[in-house]
């Protein structure tokens, strides 16, 4: 069975990472517009770097949970395409070898001048030179609001070829990811949502499993059996 899985902030929340946007509209006490847009980086690169430096430090303190590990197990028994909106590396640390990070990776750096990418140090700052071109144009390799998500061609192909689509811990508010279930459903692909509560696009799913990801995901994976 070919399975496409999309994960969002809810799968990592149980590991201790804050969800992207809290009920008050803030992300770790910052307005999203101040830390997650190209304009914010141009306006105050020091603030943006400090913010992501803190996120990397926090990421180093947490561990993958049973939901991350269950998806790694799923890849051993089925043809899995694992897509995540998350910028953390908990899927990889949980055993997943091939993860599509459509919104970039906290552990990667990007040169805004030449496009070179490299492993991010724990602490980054605006004056850091690019190891390829030398420009002081280092930024987090994160897809900010107003920028195009990564790997979309590969993602759409996976959705076209899937026998089952699942969304885990997603809000259903951020596009294009929020449209994946609708796209799959139109092609007759069964869609299941695993979440703490119904998402904003809950109508696009034929089945819903409510509960914490660390419990629902291992149970769901176990129920799929082997190919």
Automatic annotation (TrEMBL):
Cofactors demanded by this protein: Zn(2+)
Amino-acid positions noted as binding NAD(+) in the UniProt annotation, renumbered to this chain: 8-27, 85-88, 169-171, 195-197, 213
Active-site residue list: 103 (proton acceptor)
Catalytic reactions of this protein: N(6)-acetyl-L-lysyl-[protein] + NAD(+) + H2O = 2''-O-acetyl-ADP-D-ribose + nicotinamide + L-lysyl-[protein]; N(6)-succinyl-L-lysyl-[protein] + NAD(+) + H2O = 2''-O-succinyl-ADP-D-ribose + nicotinamide + L-lysyl-[protein]
GO CC terms: cytoplasm
A Pfam family reported for this protein in Swiss-Prot or TrEMBL: SIR2
SUPFAM superfamilies cross-referenced by the UniProt entry: DHS-like NAD/FAD-binding domain (SSF52467)
EC number, UniProt record: 2.3.1.286
Biological function: NAD-dependent lysine deacetylase and desuccinylase that specifically removes acetyl and succinyl groups on target proteins. Modulates the activities of several proteins which are inactive in their acylated form.
Family of this protein: Belongs to the sirtuin family. Class III subfamily.
Protein's UniProt name: NAD-dependent protein deacylase
Gene designation: cobB
């Amino acid at each position: 069975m070919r399975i496409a899985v999309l994960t969002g902030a809810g799968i990592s929340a149980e590991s201790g990472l804050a969800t992207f946007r809290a009920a008050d509209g803030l992300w770790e006490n910052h307005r999203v517009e101040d830390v997650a847009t190209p304009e914010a980086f141009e306006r105050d690169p020091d603030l943006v770097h400090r913010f992501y430096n803190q996120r990397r430090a926090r990421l180093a303190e947490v561990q993958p949970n049973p939901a991350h590990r269950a998806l790694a197990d799923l890849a051993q028994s089925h043809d899995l395409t694992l897509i995540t909106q998350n910028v953390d590396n908990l899927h990889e640390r949980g055993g997943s070898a091939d993860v599509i990070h459509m919104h970039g990776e906290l552990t990667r750096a990007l040169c805004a001048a030449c496009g070179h990418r490299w492993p991010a140090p724990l602490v980054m700052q605006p004056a850091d030179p690019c190891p390829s071109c030398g420009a002081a144009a280092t930024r987090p390799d994160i897809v900010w609001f107003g920028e195009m998500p990564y790997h979309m061609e590969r993602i759409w192909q996976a959705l076209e070829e899937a026998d089952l689509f699942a969304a885990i811990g997603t809000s259903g508010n951020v596009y294009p990811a929020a449209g994946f279930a609708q796209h799959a459903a139109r092609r007759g692909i069964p869609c299941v949502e695993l979440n703490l509560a119904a998402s904003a696009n809950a109508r696009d799913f034929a089945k819903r499993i409510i509960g914490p990801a660390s419990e629902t995901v291992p149970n769901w994976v176990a129920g799929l059996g082997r190919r």
